[in-house]
Amino acid sequence: MASFSGYNPQSHSPSPSAPPMPNPQAPSSSQPHYSQPPHWHGSSYGHSSFPPGTHPDVIRSFQMVDRDRSGYIDEIELQQALSSGYQRFSLRTIRLLMFLFKNPSSPLGIGPNEFAALWSCLGQWRAIFERFDRDRSGKIDSMELKDALYSLGYAVPPSVLQVLISKYDDRSGRRVELNFDSFVECGMIVKGLTEKFKEKDPRYTGSATLTYDAFLSMIIPFLVA
Ligand SMILES: [Ca+2]
């Protein structure tokens, strides 16, 4: 028996209340643009082309790193494609993103559809990051993280939040603050694991019964991504 009451059953389909608006201006080279509506996973897999309406910046980022033109990119190439300017992603976060967005039936890596879905999802997280960085420190502290997750429908208990944020403590004595990379990682872990849990708790009671096998299968990909 595993128990978890951290999510708000009233809000079982979390999405930001204000998704990032498409940028009608000409793309600048300094910042990535996220022009697709938010998705968790791409709506279709297995296509070797981008969904209609994909922002040219997204296509350009993909093609720049897909040097062998295979139509798929690996984790290092994904890191290069996403890490531009202000936004660098650790390999750990990249692996987690690969796990969450990769088409399970495709061993080759991330294709255009998944890349476009991932890109728009990151735009969504970027908007959340900026909205909840209330003191404009450029980072998210534990209170800001709590509020950000709550806005998405995840009422993470303080004790759990403490465990989560302590993973990012650099032991300098300063209070822990998350950069965008770590914020995305935290958010993906909470969202991903909550959704896995909900599959075992379809009536949103906050409790689920699951086998040892199911428990490990649920957790391990998030630990060793
Ligand atoms: Ca802040």
UniProtKB/TrEMBL annotation:
Pfam families in the record: EF-hand_6 (PF13405)
Annotated PROSITE patterns: EF_HAND_1, EF_HAND_2
Region feature Disordered, mapped onto this chain: 1-47
InterPro entries (alphabetical): CML48/49/50, EF-hand-dom_pair, EF_Hand_1_Ca_BS, EF_hand_dom
CDD domains, sorted: EFh_PEF_Group_I
Domain (EF-hand): residue spans on this chain: 53-88, 120-155
GO MF assignments: calcium ion binding
Name assigned to this protein: EF-hand domain-containing protein
